[in-house]
Amino acid sequence: MKKSIFITAIILIMSCGKNSDHHSITVPDLIQGNNSRANITGFIYLYDEDGTKLSNNGYVTVSIDNSTVSTTTDASGKFQLDSIPAGTYDITYNRDGFGTGKIMGLYHAATNHATTVITRNESMAMNSTLAINNVLVQAFDPALQQLGVSGFHIVPVFGNSNGKEKWVHLFFSDNNSVSANNYQTETKIKASGAATEMNNYNLTTGWFESQGFQKGQTIFVKAYGDSFLADEYTNPLTNQTIFPSLSTSSSPVISFVIPTK
Q1: From edge to edge, which strands make up the β-sheet containing 202-204?
Q2: Has residue 143 got a pLDDT over 60?
């Protein structure tokens, strides 16, 4: 009897050992799809406002929106968000003096825990330090208007010791509260800052009409310094266009009237 009990006990121990080994096998990702996690990585490069790439691209904070997940770039500009569940994400990046940027609608498969590599390198430029003193608006020469071509020379005026052209963002509206947050249309130009260069930038009456303005209407314009990057994006929550690199100062509001002919 005792011998029989001893043999049965050995069989039970062996059975338990086999079952334990079986359950330690990793469950395939296909089955545990909701638990798939992997890293997200990419690069963010920094530039000064004239377009020169910086040697140190670090200290940019990179965060997944609506979460507590964040990291920072290293000197090469690389960032890595660790062990992120599969999903579609909006990512925000920012650094003091450079504004903010967005990577929107990034699909992160995390299949077999494979890292999602963001192939498009992101760029950030320093906020513009340009202080625009005035915007001169002068109608086209009368002789040119007689030929049926009417419009305006637009000249942002600012100090420019090195003479290198700077980027300027113009915002137009039909009311005098025009700003980078309140405008009807906008355009970005390069200017030398000299008040004497009246052919610096030209906008025809036809262009204003294509933007929804009418002949005889008073238009208001305000100018801000900007960087070389086309880095504007739309805030998904407010549907507002963000211009990250604009100067904190702006020109006075200037008004002019679109010709009726």
Answers
A1: 132-139, 151-158, 202-204
A2: yes
Residue 8 forms part of a structural domain: no
| Phi, psi (deg, nearest 5) at residue 53 | -70, 135
CB 45 within 8 A of CB 123: yes
* pTM (2 d.p.): 0.80
Cβ atoms 155, 191 nearer than 8 A: yes
Cβ–Cβ < 8 Å for 60, 78: no
List the domain range (segments joined by +) for residue 181: 132-257
Alpha helices in 61-131 (DSSP H): none
> Is the per-residue pLDDT at 210 higher than 90?
yes
Q: What mean pLDDT value characterizes the chain?
A: 85
Q: What is the CATH number of the domain that holds 60?
A: 2.60.40.4130
* Model confidence at 79: pLDDT above 60: yes
Pair of tokens at residue 176: 């005098």
The answer to whether 108 and 32 have CB atoms below 8 angstroms apart is no
Look at strands 151-158 and 132-139 and give their pairing: antiparallel
CB 130 within 8 A of CB 158: yes
Alpha-carbon separation of residue 146 from 82, 113, 151, 173, 197 (angstroms) = 66, 69, 12, 27, 23
Place 162 in a pLDDT band, splitting at 50, 70 and 90: confident
Q: Choose one of 108, 125, 142: the last residue of a domain.
A: 125
pLDDT, mean of residues 44-59: 95
Place of tokens 């140190």: 56
